[in-house]
Amino acid sequence: MFVLLAIALSTGWTLVVLATKVFDLGDQFRHGYDQFWYAMAISAGLFFVADMDATESRDQLSESVSNSQAASAYLLQQVRRLESDCETGQIKLPLACHWALRTQNSLSQFAHYGAKLYWQLGPEDMNTLYSDDRSTEGFVAAQALRQQLHQYNLIRCPVVSLAPGIRQPSPASRHCQTPPPTFCTAFPNTPLKGVSPRYGPYGTVAIANECVVPTLVSLKIKQARLASDAAANARMRHIRWVFFLWIALVAGGKVANASIRMSQAIRQQVENNKAAPTNATSSALPSRRARALRRLAKARQRHPTGPRPPRLGDLGRKGRKARCDEASTP
To answer: Are 32 and 19 spatial neighbours (Cβ–Cβ below 8 Å)?
Structure first.
């Protein structure tokens, strides 16, 4: 794609240079082209912001898919431990044991679904994982299953009541773990009967279904929205690339105008340098003539035209000459 941008840039430069040469385009054309270029630059900024939004949507979708895969794998590991406890006879909760056998396949599929599958095949709601029945009986059965899973947590990870309102969860171990915060971003709308929501999903638990299952449902809804945005941005991607090529073409013309202005400035400077000695000689002649005229005016002021008045020295010389003439007369 970089090669296409370079070709578009050079094409725009060539077209503007040829048009300027053939049609004798002047500064008026270049000023108008500058205004057009500023408008296109602002439009390119808008497309750049849209492209950043598209990238952000793709990143969010990728992050959401990673969370759904990791949360499914985390819950699957806990369900397998529940199944193992049921097989060894340590746990005798029929609904929980049957659910552990039935739900492993679904969780395994969810752990491998990517961005194109999870938002289509993921859990629609909590009953999808708890029960196949969407009726009222299915809801009641799902509540009973949740209650048995809570009993399993109390057996494996008992909570010690220290005082009224103060409880101490079991220490962390291989069976009792605190679920990661990224796997507990949503919680059930209907709390368990006789269980405070404060202690339901928090603390160390053997199976974190109370927060992981609602999170898987919410992640599917989120990924459906992000996948729709990503698909729309993918369709607009080709239009953005065509617009970027057009911007490169216009930018080539802008560079051509700058090149023409630079060449004209260099040519004008060369002509001015050639004409500089002649101008200096021609400018020196008037200055010499002016100095000569000023000297002549000063001389006329000292010696004005017409009869000059007699001076004292002249009168003395004239008297001596007359006396000499009288003395030489017989």
So the answer is: no
Rg (C-alpha) for the chain, rounded Å, is: 50
Q: Which amino acid is at 185?
A: T
**How much of the chain is in helix, strand and coil states, percent to nearest 5?**
75, 5, 25
Query: Which of 20-24, 102-106, 126-130, 318-322 shows the lowest mean pLDDT across its residues?
Result: 318-322
Which residues are CB-contacts of 211 (< 8 A; sequence separation ≥ 6)? 179, 183, 184, 185, 186, 187, 201
Which residue is associated with the tokens 């160390």? 204
Q: Are 142 and 127 in contact (CB under 8 A)?
A: yes
Phi and psi at residue 205, to the nearest 5°: -135, 160
Residues contacting residue 284 through CB under 8 Å, at least 6 positions apart: none
Amino acid at 295: R
pLDDT at 330: 47
Category of 161 on φ-ψ map: left (φ > 0), alpha (ψ -120 to 50) or beta = beta
Q: Among 59, 47, 48, 49, which Cα is nearest to 229's?
A: 59
Q: Burial of 192 by CB count in 10 Å (0-12 exposed, 13-18 middle, 19+ buried)? A: middle
User: Read out DSSP for 116-165?
Assistant: TTHHHHS-SSHHHHH-S--SHHHHHHHHHHHHHHHHHHHHHS--EEEETT
Q: β-strand 160-163 against 166-168: which pairing, if any?
A: antiparallel
Query: Is the Cβ–Cβ distance between 44 and 249 less than 8 Å?
Result: no
pLDDT of residue 59: 87
- Tokens of residue 283, six digits: 């400018």
User: In angstroms, rounded to a whole number, what is the distance separating the alpha carbons of residues 41 and 250?
Assistant: 10
Confidence band, pLDDT 50/70/90 cuts, at residue 35: confident
What is the C-alpha to C-alpha distance for residues 30 and 39, in angstroms, rounded to an integer?
Answer: 15
Q: How does residue 267 score in pLDDT terms, banded at 50, 70 and 90?
A: confident
Question: Number of H helices and number of E strands within the chain?
Answer: 8, 2
Query: Amino acid identity of 98?
Result: H
Inform me whether the pLDDT recorded for 13 exceeds 60: yes
